[in-house]
Amino acid sequence: METIEQILAGFRSDLPSGSRTAQAMDRGAGAEEIASCAAAEGLHALAGALFEALEEQAAGTLPDTDAHVTGALEERIREFRAQLPADSETARAIDRQASIEEISETAQQEGLSSFAALLFEAEQEAARD
């Protein structure tokens, strides 16, 4: 699966169907349009991930399959943390620099499935290395 498709699949389940971003995804809009919608709706982690993937794709550094997330994981966690309320258990786990596994489990418990999936993928990549 291409990196951009992985990003979209990871975030789609957390978006309400009525959002412009979800509607753009559902109709198969291009990544640029989806990123713009996400930015306009304040979905900074999604917009940032898409813009970064588009830049890497344009530069020819984006792999076609099995995106490696570990290198950019810290940035993704920071972006996601900025969107979480202070009373979120996931936010607290991030703030105390808990393990990726613990943050992932906490995110899953709080219904943050796309974030948990990203962290799970990073765990799997680390286990392969």
Keywords:
129 residues; 8 helices; mainly alpha; globular
H/E element sequence: HHHHHHHH
Q: Give the oligomeric state.
A: single chain
Structural class: mainly alpha
Q: Which word captures the global form?
A: globular
Task: Please bin the fraction of helical residues.
Answer: 55-70%
Explain the overall architecture.
By secondary structure, this protein is an all-alpha fold. The chain is built from eight helices and no strands. It has helices spanning 3-12, 20-26, 31-40, 44-59, 73-83, 89-95, 100-109, 113-128. The two termini are 20 Å apart. The model is unreliable at 62-68 (pLDDT under 50).
Report a brief summary of the structure.
The chain has 129 residues and is mainly alpha-helical. The chain contains 8 helices and no strands.
Produce the secondary structure layout:
Elements: H1 3-12, H2 20-26, H3 31-40, H4 44-59, H5 73-83, H6 89-95, H7 100-109, H8 113-128
